[in-house]
Amino acid sequence: MRHLRSAGLAVLALAVSASAALAQNKGQLEIGTDFVGLNSNSVDGGSGSTTTISVNSSSNVRVGKMITDKVSVEPHLSFHRNSASGFSSQSTGIGVSALVHLKKAADKPSIYVRPSVAMRMSKFTSGVSTTTSNRTNLGVAVGMKKKLKSILIIRAEGYYLMTPKKDTSPAQTDLGARGGVSIVP
Is residue 85 scored above 80 in pLDDT? Predict the structure, then answer.
């Protein structure tokens, strides 16, 4: 019971400090999208694992809000659709990331680490069979962003995503790279 109370107090202290930081720092807003990527996807199945490597165009939108001078919170929404040889997949995801700037200088690229959590709703169709899946994934990215003009930013990052096994759906890992652009209104 004491551990539960201590954990509750720690969460309360974190919530109060985060709300104080939000109130004190109005921060800048960054709106962006990732438009190109390279992904290696590995699925652990009952008969071993399979790996797929693909070059894809990502369809996601992200909005970041600086809460301190080094950290921004970044909710994101993503849409993906793939189709090949009688198989198709569609997924919609919603998640949140904490972008932590390790090095931030106005005239140089900014290096960051971005842990994230997301919920992905997917639909897979093969011939006449269709299955749906709702899965949570955890990830981390390391990247760099560079301000080109007063409102234009480019980003490039490498990422790792882990989706745990759920019911009959196997565990999955993604390793990849993506690039995008943002504006700071």
Answer: no
